[in-house]
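Comment thread on ticket #2218

A.B. wrote:
> Attaching the input chain for the structure job we discussed in standup.
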Amino acid sequence: MDISQQQREEGVKFICDEIEHVIKEFGDRDPGSEGENKALDYMRSQLDEFSDETHRESYKVAPHAFFGWTYITATCALIAIVTLFFAPVVSVVLLVLGLLPMIGEFVFYKEAIDFLFKKRTSGNVMGTIKPTGEVKRRVVLNGHSDAVYEWHWHYVGGYKLFLTSIIIPVIAVIYIAVTAIVAMAMNGVVGTPSGAPLYMAIASVIFVPALLCFYMFADHKTVVPGANDNLTACYMAIAMLKLMHDNDIRFEHTEVVALVTGSEEAGLRGAKAFCKLNPEYGLEPNIETIFVTYETLRELEHLVIYNRDLNGTVKVDMPTCELVKRAAAKNGMDLKYGSVFAGATDSAAFAQAGRKSTCIAAMAPEVKDYYHTRRDNYDNLSPECLSKVLDITIDFITEFDEKGLNG
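C.D. wrote:
> Ran it. Output below, let me know if you need it in another format.
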C-alpha cells in the first residue's frame, strides 16, 4: 500500500485524538453500559464515512458476572473456615462450590454464573472496504470498545500488592482444604476436631482479612478510561480503513474489515457473540479469512505476537502469526511469540470458533501501574508504539493481499 510517512503520522494523530475524544465525550464504557453503546454508535458513524458498508449487532451480557466469582469464592472460603470446627466435610464441599465459578468464568471464560446477574445490552460494530473484484481474501482487524472495572489493589499498591491479593486467598483455599482433609482423617467427617486438626483450624482464621479483601478485587463502582486497553486497538483498526479511504486504496480480491467488539472485559462476550450471530463469517471455503486482534498497544519494548491465548489453553493460527512476524521483520523488529498465561484476548474466542486468528499486544508481563486502573488515560499513550504497529499492519495486509497465508 502506498501510504506516505506524513499520512501515517496523521493516522497516529487521528488515533490519539479520537481516544481522547471518546473518553471525554462518552464517560464510563463498562460492558453493556450507555457509555459503551454510545461509543459504539460513534465508531459506526466514523466507519460509515470510511467504509463501503457497516453493520451493528446487539446481544445480552451480564457485566458483573465475570468477576462475580471472586465474591462467591471468598464467601465459600470464609464459611468453610467456620465449618472446620464442626463439619470439615462441609468445608470441602464449600471449597468445591467456590472454585467451580472461578474455573468456569476465569479459567475457561464460560457463562458459568452469568444467569445470576442482571443483563444489559452490548454490541459489535463492523466496517468493510470491499475489493474491486470477487472476494477471495479477507482480513479482519479487531479491538474491543469496553473498559474494565478497576482492579482495586493494583491501583492502591501496584503489581506486588495485586499479586499478593490473589496469592494469599489461593494459599488460604489450599490450607483450608488440607486442614479439612486432615480433620476428617483423624476425627471423622463431622464433629469438633481435636489435636493437630483443631490447632490447624484455629490458625486458618489468619486468612480472614485476606479473604475479606478479595471482595474488593474488582471495584464495580469505578470504570477505568481504557485508553490503551483497548481504545488503541479500536482506533488502530478504524485508522487503517481511514487511510485506505483517504488514499483511495482498495484491493482487487481482498476485503479489509474493522471489527469493534463490545464486552471483552466481561469474558470475551462480544467476540463470542459475533461468532454465534455470524456462524459462516470467516469460515467460507472460498474466502481465506484471518482475524488480527490488537490488545493494549502501549509498550513498544514488549510488542509480541500471541500464539497461545486464554490462560495458555488455546492455540491460535500459526500461519497468521508468521504473517505478522514477517511484516514486523520488514519494519526492523524481530517479534517473539508469546502466550496469555493469565487472561485472554478476543483472538481466543475467534480461534475457539474455528477462525484463523492471532493477537498483537504491547504490554509488560509484569503489568504496569496503568493496567486496569484509572491511570489508563489519554495522557498515557505511546505514539511511537502506535506508529510501529500501524506500519506492521500496512505490511501484513499488503502481503496477505499479494500472497495469502501460504505465499
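A.B. wrote:
> Thanks. Noting for the ticket: Residues 310 and 344 are 4 Å apart (CA to CA).
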